[in-house]
Specification:
Elements: H1 4-24, E1 29-34, E2 39-44, E3 49-54, H2 64-94
């Protein structure tokens, strides 16, 4: 039989674990590059850009559009990788806390 009080306790436990996992996302960092390493972007698990490095060889006005494209590519790649790591971290913190309920997906909460 379904025990509502037990389920409510589990939900509170999941909520606490998810908060802990979300707090830890700031410590996950991913660095991605584009243009064979000419542009590097570092992003944390909260999908915030932490740093951006542009090789000195790119810093002239004629290459402004190319630099912009490389920056976008590096940041997007870092954001994607950070998102995957964040998803894994959230899953690791909440795994086994709730029964397998069809349609209940906690992976995207807080991301």
């Amino acid at each position: 039989m379904f025990d509502m009080f037990s389920m409510m306790g589990k939900l509170k436990e999941v909520q606490a674990k998810m908060k802990e996992a979300q707090d830890n996302l700031q410590f996950i960092t991913v660095t991605a590059e584009s243009g064979a390493g000419l542009v590097k972007a570092k992003v944390n698990g909260q999908r915030k850009l932490i740093s951006l490095e542009i090789d000195d060889s790119l810093l002239n006005k004629e290459d402004k559009e190319m630099i912009s494209d490389l920056v976008v590519a590096a940041v997007n790649k870092a954001m994607d990788e950070a998102g995957e790591k964040a998803k894994d971290e959230m899953k690791r913190h909440t795994e086994g806390l709730l029964p397998n309920i069809p349609g209940l997906d906690l992976n995207n909460l807080g991301l």
